[in-house]
Automatic annotation (TrEMBL):
It comes from Candidatus Berkelbacteria bacterium CG10_big_fil_rev_8_21_14_0_10_43_14. The lineage of its organism: Bacteria, Candidatus Berkelbacteria. InterPro entries: Acyl_CoA_acyltransferase, FEMABX, PG_Glycine_Bridge_Synth. Belongs to the FemABX family. GO terms for biological process: cell wall organization; peptidoglycan biosynthetic process; regulation of cell shape. This is BioF2-like acetyltransferase domain-containing protein.
Length: 352
């Protein structure tokens, strides 16, 4: 065993060994198969692959893995040599400031991995500690985030949380998607299709929650539905008679003690009610009841990049407090360098 391997293995005890991404599950592999991806396993990780359009080259993708075993990289290289893709992309969840980060980067270099020119899952993220009490979560928000959350509460914004296996889930999904699409249109970005959301719900119905913030109710006192699923099911029926307007919505996936904020959107109506702030606070409170230790708000801008495309999004997410972290992120193993260069050029054009 090399000195680098010994160092990596020795320092693994300082890195979490329990974190497993929902992207490394059979449910995700099944979900992606509906969009042309094929799943294989190498060791205990899923490797997704598909033929890329226009250039007819195979791409392999290993989403969000923790590097626990220094042999994983060698296994992936052997697999790539056998399958001969254009390239294999590996996403590493280990933090850049983790004790074994430098050892991992050295092993990547030794196995001819290079830093990817783009990321599929975000490297920079905002993470909220859910082991805190509900009071402390609110207290540890930034002043503006705490003020806006309390303002939404005071103004009577209602938050309804529905589990993916609830009978009304599809109805709620349509509401969330409408808010999501309106937000995408305002920002001139191409969002996911509704069929994508439907398929996601179908494959993760036991782990997805759909959250919607509404204008204050006029027929009953303000309330929040963020309770165990059995109560949600009973409460949903009583809310159907209340006329109110959806202001904000989100899709959150709960897996392995982590609640991940996947998609969201908001209306321009009644912006003064600050509904998105209360929405996220209630999602965090609900996630605590499901034994989550972390709320992952996902993508934020890298530090010291005020003009980054995620700058405004970052300011919003950081109002909830927590910690900004950076993962080691994406690395590519180029098996067909010529086609990889062509693909890189095409991706740069597409993303402009």
């Amino acid at each position: 065993m090399t000195e680098t391997s010994q160092t990596m293995n020795k320092e693994l005890e300082n890195e979490s060994k329990t974190q497993t991404s929902y992207l490394q599950t059979q449910s995700w592999a099944t979900f992606k198969s509906a969009f042309g991806w094929k799943a294989d396993t190498v060791g205990d990780v899923f490797v997704l692959s598909r033929q890329l359009p226009y250039i007819n080259q195979l791409m392999m993708y290993v989403p969000e893995v923790m590097i626990h075993d220094s042999s994983l990289l060698e296994k992936l290289v052997l697999f790539a040599k056998e399958k001969k893709p254009m390239f294999l992309r590996l996403e590493i969840l280990n933090n850049v400031d983790g004790g074994n980060a430098e050892a991992i980067k050295q092993k990547l270099k030794e196995n001819h991995f290079v830093k990817a020119f783009e990321e599929l899952q975000p490297e920079h993220r905002q993470i909220i500690d859910l082991t805190q009490s509900e009071t402390d979560i609110l207290h540890n928000m930034k002043e503006k985030g705490r003020y806006n959350t309390r303002l939404a509460q005071k103004k009577g914004v209602r938050v309804e949380i529905t589990t993916g296996d609830d009978a009304t889930a599809l109805e709620k999904l349509k509401i969330v998607y409408d808010l999501y699409q309106k937000t995408a249109d305002r920002k001139s970005i191409s969002g996911r299709s509704y069929s994508y959301f439907e398929k996601l719900l179908e494959n993760f119905k036991d782990e997805i929650i759909l959250s919607i913030a509404y204008t204050p109710a006029t027929t009953s006192p303000p309330s929040v539905i963020a309770v165990p699923p059995s109560v949600i099911a009973r409460s949903t029926a009583t809310k159907q008679s209340i006329t109110s307007t959806p202001l904000a919505g989100s899709i959150t996936l709960i897996h392995g003690g982590v609640a991940s904020y996947l998609y969201g959107g908001s209306s321009l109506e009644r912006k003064e009610l600050m509904a998105p702030y209360l929405l996220h606070y209630e999602v965090m409170k609900y996630a605590k009841t499901q034994n989550c230790q972390t709320y992952d708000l996902l993508a934020i801008a890298p530090p010291d990049q005020p003009n980054h495309k995620f700058a405004n999004l970052t300011r919003f997410k950081q109002q909830f407090g927590g910690k900004s972290i950076a993962r080691l992120g994406s690395y590519d193993l180029k098996m067909r360098p010529f086609w990889y260069t062509i693909f890189k050029l095409l991706e740069n054009i597409r993303r402009k």
